[in-house]
Design goal:
- This protein has no helices and 5 strands.
- It is mostly beta strands and about 70 residues long.
- It has a 5-stranded antiparallel beta sheet, with no helix packed on it.
- β1 (about 1-5) and β2 (about 10-15) form a beta hairpin.
Length: about 70
């Protein structure tokens, strides 16, 4: 993946598929895009897009919290 854009206003960092070295074909299942949102010093939200056969099959979201 390649970082494509960052918005300081929203804290969003967008990654998009660039190329893969270990996929037999582009149709094989793989994580294609991801967005990380830096909510504050203690929270990050991420959203990952899984593609297969050239189409988005699923989106997974994760919430990360720093534990001190």
């Amino acid at each position: 993946m390649e970082a494509r854009r960052f918005s300081p206003e929203t804290g969003e960092l967008r990654f998009e598929f660039f190329e893969a070295t270990n996929l037999a074909t582009p149709a094989d299942g793989h994580m294609h895009n991801a967005t990380l949102k830096l909510v504050d010093q203690n929270h990050i939200v991420s959203e990952w897009e899984f593609y297969e056969n050239g189409k988005k099959k699923a989106t997974e979201s994760f919430n990360y919290v720093r534990i001190r």
